[in-house]
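EI: anyone free to look at a 141-residue chain?
SC: sure, send it
EI:
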Amino acid sequence: MKEIQIEINKDASDIGLAELIASLIRENCAQNESKRRIFSRLRGDVLIIAKDAEVSIHLSFESGKLTISNGNGKNAGFIIEANSDNIINLSNIRLLMGYPFLINREGLGIIRNILNRDIEIRGISANILFGLNLLRIISVN
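SC: here you go
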């Protein structure tokens, strides 16, 4: 299978979150053929906003290529807004048969953060498959 392509635009090169997400996806896809297949078919945009760091990144997936750019002034149909730690914690969600398994410590913590609005996910209802596939490729489990 063709190697995945991840590009960080110059406008996001000094945003640590951009490199962190790129590395996470690169490593997960290198270690897992299933995640690599999901990545190669993924199409869509997501805006990730780290409130505490006052930065945002825009991820654009286009059939085997991910472009990460500065998210300032950009919009997407799927938006994740949280503090940096909560964004990173999304990668700890356990998957069971490819779906989030939330009945454990990490999962319950994420549910609690969503209910408390410490993690806001907008556009999930219109982009449920995209959201699940994004979760699959960022999850380290």
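EI: The mean pLDDT is 93.
SC: 👍
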